[in-house]
Amino acid sequence: KKILVIHGPNLNFLGIREKGVYGEMSFNELNDYLLKTAEEMGISLEIFQSNCEGDLIDRLQQAYYDEVDGIIINPGAYTHYSYALRDAIASINIPTVEVHLSNIHKREEFRHTSVTAPVCIGQIAGFGAYSYILGMQALSKKLNIK
Ligand code: DQA
């Protein structure tokens, strides 16, 4: 099965940005960890990152044409206000899991709202890099991978 991981804005700065919140793991280390785990799970994983809302939307629409089986998305701060990203997720009819490294619900008030989660299967937040692994496990279950 084909799963696409989409990282939104500033996630390419992992290991540099707010280490107290997001940890020491670099963006490349995170992606290596995801690729390795996916391989062990028999999942073919593709990873995409952009800081631009429109590019994230274009990639979601491309996933529709590519017939991707499932999506794991960390929309970064777009989570909290991008109706355009929400509409894109709702448009493509691909099971999508929203993930966050931090527990957005115990942070600033503006992070408590996700406009994207209601069009996803569910949301996983607060487990650092492992949030993405939990997302993969949730999708495997949904897609009946082994
Ligand atoms: C984040 C949480 C968002 O509020 C923030 O804007 C991010 C990262 C997370 O993974 O914890 O960029 O999505």
Automatic annotation (TrEMBL):
Pathway membership, UniProt: Metabolic intermediate biosynthesis; chorismate biosynthesis; chorismate from D-erythrose 4-phosphate and phosphoenolpyruvate: step 3/7
InterPro entries found in the cross-reference section: DHquinase_II, DHquinase_II_CS, DHquinase_II_sf
The record's active-site residues are Y22 (proton acceptor), H100 (proton donor)
Q: Which CDD domains match?
A: DHQase_II
Give the Pfam families listed for this entry: DHquinase_II
Q: Which Gene3D superfamilies match?
A: Dehydroquinase, class II
Keywords attached to this Swiss-Prot or TrEMBL record, sorted alphabetically, are:
Amino-acid biosynthesis, Aromatic amino acid biosynthesis, Lyase
Residues bound to substrate are N74, H80, D87, L101, S102, R111
* Its EC number(s): 4.2.1.10
Q: Does the keyword Glycosyltransferase apply?
A: no
Q: What is this protein called?
A: 3-dehydroquinate dehydratase
Q: What is the organism lineage in this UniProt record?
A: Bacteria, Bacillati, Bacillota, Clostridia, Lachnospirales
Task: Name the job this protein performs.
Answer: Catalyzes a trans-dehydration via an enolate intermediate.
Is Glycosyltransferase among this UniProt entry's keywords?
A: no
This protein's gene is called: aroQ
